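User: quick one, sequence for these tokens?
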């Protein structure tokens, strides 16, 4: 049995790995661009070659057998090693660092700083894309992500950058029209932009009972912070925004921060990348640079 691997095509292992990970022949076929029948046939051929079942075929699902579980873990590790090896080869030839993050982080914090990274790494081009969904870094063409959350994502190594905290922001003119906003209670009757539940959390952090009313802005999905603060910049009301991400607007006097009280949202902001690619030179260079930038965030 020592030469059994030589008789099994890599395509069969790849199809089995996808089916085991997705727990579906149909979804594995969609991911790999083949037919469901091809996946089923390859898995049956693999089971016949191994002389034991890898899946239990139930009426509406497939479940790995104990043998399938063992082979699934090994197949996933093998595919990951191959993917890493190919990625490293591509890294050497391309010299492109692909970053994915939320629009607010990209526009307000990362983009203004990227010039210094480019100057320090002139042979490395940067591709920055914004996406409201959580990109799968193990399968999609991105090297790193800057994302909000708790910092624990399977298969990824993550580094804390700065907290994800929100505080009321408005124009100095609106603050004056609202009487100066000397106390958190002064916001109860103010035009509030954003989600009522987020405002309720801020009022609790400030030691004030939240007003029982809806906020001014529509309930936006995804990364709405930049849009809401843009409304505040237009004088339409008071929005909840990050004092770190909007530090430039606060320092320039375009936005006023009436209160020090903040409330934590989504744990924090993190740099994340596949754990098996942590030695990639371009990822290491970006990580070291970004952590140095984050150390100065306040």
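Assistant:
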């Amino acid at each position: 049995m020592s030469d059994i691997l030589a008789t099994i095509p890599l395509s069969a292992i790849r199809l089995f790995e996808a089916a085991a990970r997705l727990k579906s022949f149909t979804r594995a076929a969609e991911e790999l661009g083949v037919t469901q029948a091809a996946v089923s046939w390859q898995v049956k051929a693999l089971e016949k070659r191994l002389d034991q079942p890898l899946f239990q075929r139930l009426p509406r699902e497939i479940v790995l057998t104990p043998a399938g579980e063992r082979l699934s873990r090994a197949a996933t590790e093998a595919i990951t090693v191959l993917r890493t090896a190919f990625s490293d080869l591509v890294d050497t030839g391309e010299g492109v660092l692909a970053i994915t993050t939320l629009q607010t982080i990209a526009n307000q914090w990362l983009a203004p700083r990227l010039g210094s990274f480019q100057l320090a790494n002139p042979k490395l081009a940067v591709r920055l894309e914004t996406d409201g969904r959580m990109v799968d870094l193990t399968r999609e063409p991105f090297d790193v992500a800057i994302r909000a959350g708790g910092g624990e994502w399977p298969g990824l190594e993550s580094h804390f950058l700065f907290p994800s905290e929100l505080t009321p922001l408005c124009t100095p003119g609106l603050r004056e029209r609202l009487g100066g906003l000397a106390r958190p209670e002064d916001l109860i009757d103010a035009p509030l932009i954003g989600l009522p539940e987020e405002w309720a959390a801020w009022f609790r952090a400030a030691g004030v009972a939240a007003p029982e009313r809806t906020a001014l802005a529509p309930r936006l999905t995804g990364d709405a912070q930049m849009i809401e603060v843009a409304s505040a910049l237009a004088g339409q009301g008071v929005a909840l925004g990050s004092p770190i991400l909007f530090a430039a607007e606060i320092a320039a006097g375009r936005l006023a921060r009436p209160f020090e009280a903040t409330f934590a949202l989504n744990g924090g902001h993190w740099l994340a990348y596949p754990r098996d690619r942590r030695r990639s030179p371009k990822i290491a260079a970006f990580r070291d640079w970004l952590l140095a930038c984050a150390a100065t965030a306040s």
